Amino acid sequence: MPLNAASSAVYIQNTAPGFISTPGRAPTSVTVHPVALFSILDHYLRRTDTQERVIGTLLGTRSDNGEIEVRSAFAVLHSETEEQVAVDMEYHRTMYELHHKVNPKEVIVGWYSTGSNLNTYSALIQNFYSQETAPHQAVHLAVNTGAQEGEQTGVKAFVGSPVGVFPKPENCVFVPIPCALRFNDSERNGLDLLTTTASAPNTSVSHPVNDLEVLERSLKSVSEMLDRVLSYVQSVLSGEVKGDAAVGRYLMDTLGSTTEDLEKGGFNSALQDTLMVSYLASLVRSQAEVSARLALVTPV
Amino acid sequence: MAAPSMAAALAASLPAPSAAPAPAAPTYEAIPASMSKVIDIEAEIPLTAVQVDGLVVTKIIKHSREAYGSTAHGILLGLDLDGTLEVSNSFALPSHASDDDDKSAKGVARYQAAMMRSLKEVQADDSIVGFYQAMTLGSFFNQTLIETQAIHQERLRHGGIVVVHDLSQTARGNAAFRAFRLTKAFFDAFKRNNFSTPSLISHRLTFSTILEEIPIKIRTSPLLSSFIETLTDATVRAPAGANPAAATSSAALPPSFDVLNLGTSSISRNLEHIIEAVDAYKTEEGNLGYLSRQIAREKARADAYVAKRKEENAARVAQGLAPLPEEDVSRLFKIPPEPSRLESMLLLGKIDAYAKSLEQTSGTGLVKMYGVKADSST
Question: Does chain B have fewer CB atoms within 10 Å around its N or its C terminus?
C-alpha cells in the first residue's frame, strides 16, 4: 500500500452512499461460504512453481444492506513480474459466462488472492475488478493459507478506495471490512464430515457411515459436554471456582425444561407410529424383492 | 424425451477410449521403480475404491442444495491410481429445464467442453471420471442416470462412476455420498437393449443388481485439513475446567447436533414417495400385463390357425388331394415383441430405496425416542 508519509494531501474517497456514484450501499461486510474458500485453497495447491500467489474471481450475491455473500470462486490466470502484471481477461469472461449459466443468481462481487501482502499490483487488479463489478464496488479477499512459515492462517476482506490528489489506478487504500464464514445446515453437515476427515490419521475416512454411527458420535459428544458441565458445577459447589452468574443462567435455561410433558403428550403413540413405520418399511422392501424375483420366474 | 438426446450429446463430447489420457505415465520420463507397479496405461488395474476430495464434497452439497427440486448433476474430474479413483474436482452442469431437447443437449456438450478447456489452463485435473447426481430420500434410479452412466462406461477409462448425494440424509445430519457403476450383467443387457423376461433371467437381473457400489473415501488435502483445524480450534482448545460459555462462543465452527433432532417430519413425505412409486409401479405392471395378454392372444390365434391348416391338410391327404402349402404364420399374425421390463425394474428399485431410507429414519428415530424416554423416566 503505497501510502507514504511524503504525500501531503491524502484524499481518501468517502464510501458513504450518495457521495460516489454507487447505487445501493457500499459493502459493509463479507460472508464467505466454505465452497469458495476450499476452491481458493485448491487453486493455491495447484499453482505453478513460479507463482508467488494465485488470484481468482469471487461470485456471490449482494444484499441491500451492504452485505456481500461470497458463494463460489474460480481461478483466473495471471502473471506477475517485476515490471508488470497481467490478468487473462478473456479467460475470466469465459469462466464467468460458464458459471453464470449454471447459477444465474451469482454475479461477480470481487476477487481473491492468496497471501496477505497488498501491493501496487493488488491495486491494479482491484481497479480491473471494479470495472467488472461496476456500478458496485469490488471486494478483495486476501486468504492467507498459512503455508509460509510464521504466518497465520486467515481470511481478510477489503474494499478499495482511491487515494491521492488525482486518483490513479495503481494507488489504492484497502479498507478492511468484517469478514465471516457462513454456512447453512446442509453445508454444515458436510463440514462436519470434513472435520472428522481432517482429524483422521491419514486424512481420509471411509464412507458412507451409518446413520446410527453418526448418532452415536453426537450422543457421546453430548455426554462429554454434560460431564464438563457437571465437573464445573461441582467445582463451583465445592468452592474451588467462583460461580459465573451468566453460566448459571445458561444452564438454567438449557436444563430447566422438563420432559414430563412428553409422557402425557402422546409420546407412546408416536413411538408406536414410528415402530409401525419401521415395520412397514421392511415389509415394502421384502415385497419389492419378491416382485423382482417373481419377474425372473419363467412363465409356463 | 430429453434423456437420450442429452446422453447422446454427452457421448459426443467425451473423448474416445483410445484418446483417454494416460495419467501417471509420461513416456519420456523413466518411471520410478516404486511407481511401476501402479502405472497402468491400459487401465488394467480394476477400481476398488473411490476417493473424494473435500472440495468436491462441498461443491456437490452446494449445488444439490441450490438446485433443490430439479435434480442437480455435474461432472467429476480426477485420476485413477492403483485401483483408487481420486476425484479431485467437479463442476455443475446447467439444468436443462427448457424442453428444447436438441438445443439444450448440444449446449450441455459445448458447456462441458468449454469448462474442461478452462480448467486445464489453471492446472486443474481435466479428465472426466464420472458424474454426480443429487437425490432425495435415497432414490436415484432413473432412466437418465442409467443411460448417462452406460455411455460413460463405454467411453471412459475404467468405465467411470456415478456419485450420488442424498440431500435428505444430509439434512438429518449425515452427509452421505455413495459411488456406483453398472454391473457387467446389466451393462450387457443394456447394450443389447433387451430387457425381456428371458434376457432378465439369463442375466439374473433384479433391481439390486443394476448397480454395484464402490466403497468411497473422503479425503482432505493437508492444506484443507490445517485450515479446518484452525476453524475448529477454539472448541478443541477449551479446557475442561474453563468457562464453558466462553469456550463455545469463540469457535468459528461450533459442533452441531442436527442428528439429535427428534422431528419426524420427513417420514410422512417419505411415505408419500413410497405410495407414489408403488402407484407408478402398479400402472407399469398393468401395461406389461396388458402387453403380455396381447402377445398370448396373438400367439393363440396363430396356433389355432396352424392347427386348423394341419387338420385341413390331413383331410385333403385322406381325400387324395395335394396338401395346401404351409404359410408363413408370422406374416399373417403380428406378434408384438416382448415388452421391456426395464422401467418396472427401475420403479421397484425406487420403491426399495425409499423403503430403505424410511427404515433408516425410523430406526434412528426409535433409538432417539427411547433415549428421550429413558431420560424422562429417571
Answer: C
Looking at chain A, the whole-number percentage of residues with pLDDT higher than 70 is: 81
- Closest chain A residue to the Cα of B204, Cα to Cα: A296
pLDDT tens, residue by residue, B99-110 = 455 666 777 778
Q: What's B137's DSSP letter? A: T
CA distance, residue A44 to nearest chain B CA (Å)? 9
User: In this complex, do A296 and B123 lie within 8 Å of one another by their Cβ atoms?
Assistant: no
CA of B125: how far to CAs of A43, B88, B117, B133, B200, in Å? 11, 7, 10, 20, 39
Number of alpha carbons in the 13 Å side-chain half-sphere of residue A156: 15
Domain positions in chain B are 41-222, 260-377
pTM (2 d.p.): 0.77
Q: Find, among B57, B24, B14, B3, the residue nearest to B159 by Cα.
A: B14
| Mean per-residue pLDDT of chain B | 75
Number of residues that make up chain A? 300
Within 8 A of A185 by CB-CB distance, chain B residues are: 171, 256, 258
pLDDT of residue A288: 87
C-alpha pair distances (Å), B241 with each of A226, A255, B252, B256: 12, 19, 21, 22
Q: Kindly report the backbone phi and psi dihedral angles of residue A117, in degrees, each rounded to the nearest multiple of 5, phi listed first.
A: -90, 130
Query: Distance from B315 to chain A by nearest Cα, in Å?
Result: 32
A208 prior amide bond cis, ω within 30: yes
Q: By CA distance, what is B215's nearest residue in A? A: A207
At B254-299, the pLDDT tens digits run: 666 666 777 667 788 888 888 998 999 999 989 888 888 888 888 8
> If you measure CA to CA, which chain A residue comes closest to B125?
A46
